[in-house]
Write a structure and sequence with these properties.
4 copies of one chain form a homotetramer. By secondary structure, the first copy, chain A, is α/β, with parallel strands linked by helices. Chain A folds into 2 domains: 2-149 and 288-350, Rossmann fold; 151-283, Rossmann fold (3-Layer(aba) Sandwich). The first copy, chain A, has helices at 15-28, 54-57, 90-102, 114-125, 150-171, 186-194, 209-221, 258-270, 290-308, 328-331, 343-350; strands at 2-7, 32-36, 49-52, 107-112, 130-134, 174-179, 199-201, 227-232, 274-278, 314-318, 323-327.
Chain lengths: 358, 358, 358, 358
């Protein structure tokens, strides 16, 4: 039995943890794993792939990026975004199918975002044995409450805010930090809350620069001279206002990103020194956090379970949770022990960890 | 209106985030907050406490430990553990009550573990306005799926395993790491999975040293000469076996902790160099992770909500979640946007973060 | 006896370690320390200052920024740069002098860069008891081989390169990272070497974009598809070439910083996906490394020593060192033990650390 | 031309940076590099080795441990310590020599500590082309002012102290941290200074537990209820006093390491809660700091330079430096630019980094 796996779209901390989980769990039940290189491109004949054994994946758990490579361009690229689905040409699909058949792949795990999963759905509808694993660093896929990579990105944002805070306080400045989030502001929201931001601007909540300036001036009046602003890259300046920044003394005209535009306007409105920083690709790179390593592995193990059950056309998900309350009486004196037969122990066993009892 | 807050029991990364959330949310609705020092001890007349304003809690989000101080001893200490509830003497309770009455405290938030919450329950039954926030770094309280501090502890374990792994591979050794978890092995299980451990030993799963030795020898035969073993402090040597370790050349006899005993026995059984390390207090200290900062703040904000609703005798909790699957068709093309009226935005607003729209 | 201390110019990791060293060492010999706020501005009547005791500086060792505040603007700001010295008006100096006299300051420690030290020199020449501590995150002051903050900045660059490297390899990209270094390229050079950069561009070494493109294409031909480029902010495009970047699909014209210009040209010349990132203020913020904490403390302790000796007009420095070789015979069998009377133990004792012998 | 390299003795962060420097610099001048596995053992026929190219060492700069493997046991192990030199049997040397001759190794770089370098010296005296690179995480080799790995170990100690400090303050405890340093206390001294320790105990300075207890009680009286004690593993209890620790309630008798013994005695003398932690192997593992990556690479490049010059019997060293002072007048207005022909640029070029000018 053979499983194929590929990574598609932008890279994301935890991709290798998924691969680790898939290879470990497959090996445990005696299945082989073939990893395709550079996303769907690796499917095109003669096929760009390698067999993956537990030895190959030893030590990859902590690595950022993807050992398989990925691409968000190429023959299979669909326009990402609601309603923007592009069909992949039949000729491309037929060619790729030949590789699948020749290699006798019985399940193909696609680790990708909305666009790549849409491609996967098209393939599934044509009879391919597709299993999806959601990959969205922005954490904006509605069918999963949490996806790997998000916690790592938030951690990077929090670290950046901790740094900017000290320099903001030393110089009584406004610091504006631009973070990822094209459509959804989760990274800005979580990162801003955990990083002690004073202002958070999201694509989902229209904002007024004048109101923010008033908020900053009010803080100043109360002796709080430093202000941290987090802005999601997809946040929109009110009424399409576009700020022209004259940055160089030589009189060059330039238009910056959203953080530079917000910073320029806030400096104008508040008369305070304001600086912009864009985190950019620093959010994608780097080692995954412990949480993302585990979530990635859990997703990988679940994907193999789905393959075993031939539950094609399904995507691994993470069920919703939220903060709530219970009576203290219900709460005390009941330890929540590890269930020796529960999901977590199963994950550990599935990837070949010895629990000392067999 | 006045809320009191105290931290009780061992310290835990994220305690200050709870305080930050409570103070921010209370201030937003015009309530005062009084922080009692050193747990319940601060309640004894004349009272050891301070008023807490948003200025006081600025910057504490990222600090480990507790700015309020804590104790797991003193006049209120209950024996922790299922069935081991000790009643607090009436005389002590009456004295503490006077402080509460004099300061006109209308809700008392207790951030503590099973023992401290049991004390809180006793007080609630006597008419105190108690609200509980669960604090358990071991994450072993059944009424909450996740508690703050756990992610930080797991992260510390993963960092330690990353370090031990490089030295294990350089020297072809077995490294045994002892982590927290007296009754429940969650830290060992999550930390071990994320840190790439090869063997994980829990209080919940009886193990055989001979089986582990066989597993290690089998790895060696396959060319994997380094093995990482994670053992929870509460894991029990099979059949009460107690290992005597002759560590010094001078012939001193000593008995080590569980990691040293496991290491000594595995070295004997496998003839491989084996080293033990105990993480100990390094797991409690240090800055909370982004996840724990947010969870702590969410717990704090929820505690103030409960106070506002006079929902006394309740404890904040975190509802269960798990990895599952959905059809890809349901999954794609549906962005999960931030709900402008949802819990997360409410938490941000509750602690006074400006969202730019008001 | 009273010492004054102020921080001037841009903030730098380790500033608080200097303050910690000064306060600890002064307290040990029975001197008081007064910290002036916001650089030289704090000297203007009525004086903006606070007394600093060891209790005040407890825990500041690890904090980024400066607890004293700083400014690189104001009444005392000199144009920084060789030959660009601006004299401070006599009237300003006379007013500031009154504060010094009233507070009976017997030595004034100025922690600042080239411009601030030049101001300090002007004051010293007019009879002020000035002692300098060099602060240059770029590490470009010729009179000291190393200054605090530099190691922290290099560490931030290395962390960023580690992150960019994973995403570069996953996507076979060229990543261009812009780091600090207006006149001197030390941060780019050290950071680039330690971070595994493939190309390093400095203000001191004129470069050719064509040669770099050839280098990248050559790497590609050898199967190395990812390339990391580090460019100091002060590096100059060859022959004053200025690149216009049409970034938006809406046709907006913009001119980016040096990293964006280099990236745009390299993408053009190599036809490879190229991305630019600017680290900016992330390099100044954040906790100082262990090395910078120690160097800052050593500088602070030395500054108090100079004050005690009335060695005014002097600046603390760090003597040159370099990699060399010796015969192995000279090298072996000679342990380099801690000298109980050497500088390091003296620093420890000077700030009040107990060595267990008195 | 061929260079051999081996790592001998305990592992140390930065070992792979040395290998990276050697391979890069050798490749640049057209020499081949052979890496021997597991220290001198790899020299025994038929030889356990691999050829190392720049591709092989790509990405190893940031890895802890050693890709070559090491051992501090085996046929070549010398008793380490002043005056404890053990000669390697002639028969072993002759066998190893055959491997060197067959592979036509023209220089053999030994990266090792005092014992391994002593073995190297013996080989050099018998005509082997030996070049030494000092490896001592304790930084206790007299012939080099600094060795790689030390900064990483100090950083680990500082991180641990930051963690212990928060828990010490929350619970008003004395925390005792045991760090490496068998003969020399450098790690304890640097780590303790940078980590804000209150007490530092070294092998070089005899101490009195009673004096330390008085110091702690004095702190308590001044309201400083938390105390951090750093003790080097080689520090000696006064007058050979050996503390018996009755740790378990079951009455087991045990003798702990130096930190546990110091903690037990201090708790007895001060009546304060005291906890001991031993860092152990966590200090050796983990990624090297930026400083150690650079120092390792510089050592590696210098070793190849020595090989090119046939300067056998020599060891790479790092010349002394210290904190001093200069006149401010000498200091200002002189930028310390990167020397385009200086050591650092040479190191960058030597390992194949493109500086954009050729």
């Amino acid at each position: 039995m053979r499983i194929g796996i590929l990574n598609s779209g932008g890279d994301c901390p935890g991709l290798n943890a998924v691969t680790h989980g898939v290879v470990g769990a497959a090996h445990k039940i005696g299945w082989e794993v073939i990893g395709f290189r550079d996303g769907f491109e690796g499917l095109l004949p003669p096929g760009d792939y390698r067999f993956l054994t537990p030895e190959d994946t030893m030590g990859i758990l902590k690595l950022g990026g993807t050992i398989l490579g990925s691409t968000n361009k190429g023959h299979f690229s669909a326009k990402i975004g609601v309603g923007n689905v592009t069909e992949i040409p039949k000729e491309i699909i037929d060619r790729a199918r030949r590789t699948i058949d020749q290699l006798e792949i019985e399940a193909l795990i696609i680790v990708g975002g909305d666009g790549s999963l849409t491609t996967g759905l098209q393939l599934f509808r044509q009879g391919w044995p597709i299993i999806g694993v959601p990959k969205t660093i922005d954490n904006d896929l509605s069918a999963t409450a949490m996806s790997f990579g998000f916690d790592s990105a938030v951690t990077t944002v929090v670290d950046a805010l901790d740094r900017l805070n000290t320099t903001a306080e030393s110089h009584k400045r406004v610091m504006v930090l631009e973070v990822m989030g094209r459509h959804a502001g989760w990274i800005a929201l979580w990162g801003g809350i955990a990083g002690g931001a004073n202002v958070i601007l999201l694509p989902e909540i229209p904002f007024s620069l004048q109101k923010i300036a008033d908020f900053i001036k009010n803080r100043d009046a109360q002796g709080q001279h430093a202000t941290l602003v987090v802005v999601a890259e997809g946040a929109k300046l009110p009424d399409g206002e576009l700020v022209t920044i004259d940055k160089n003394s030589t009189g060059e005209i330039r238009l910056g990103g959203i953080s530079e535009q917000v910073a320029a306007r806030l400096q104008e409105l508040t008369k305070k020194e304001t600086r912009a920083t864009t985190l950019g690709h620093l959010q994608r790179g780097g080692a995954p956090t412990a949480f993302d390593r585990i979530l990635g592995m859990r997703f990988g193990v679940m994907a193999v379970n789905l393959a075993k059950q031939k539950a094609f056309g399904r995507m691994v998900s993470y069920e919703a949770y939220h903060v709530d309350s219970v009576t203290i009486e219900e709460a005390v004196n009941k330890l929540r022990l590890v269930d020796p037969d529960g999901e977590f122990v199963q994950v550990a066993r599935a990837v070949g960890i010895c629990m000392g009892d067999s």
